[in-house]
Design goal:
0% strand; mainly alpha
Length: 125
Amino acid sequence: MKPENYVAFLTVCGFFIGLAFSIVSVDEAFDILFFTCFITFVFYIFVHVVIMNFIDVKKISGRIFDKNDYEKSSNNIINDLVIREKKMDMILEKLDEERQELKKNEAKEKRKNNKNGSFNAKRAA
């Protein structure tokens, strides 16, 4: 069991016990709020004292941080992101080139249609 679980559980228990106690014994809203916060804080401090004295935290979470392994995996991830970014830039450049070609082709088609349309209009007249 992790010490964080004890802290969370007893803090929540303290909150509800403090809320129940203050609603039963106190009439004013500010006093209810004050006593609820105070009792929750007492439970919070109590659970930390208990963890400090009775739970060996080093045994539970005694994990050695391997800086070299962390840096190696971070560098691999960064390199992969750089490669993906370059691929995305290339794709965006190709899309931009295609978009420009489409605009040119559309302009040519409009001119061609305008010429044919005006020629057919003159012919019909």
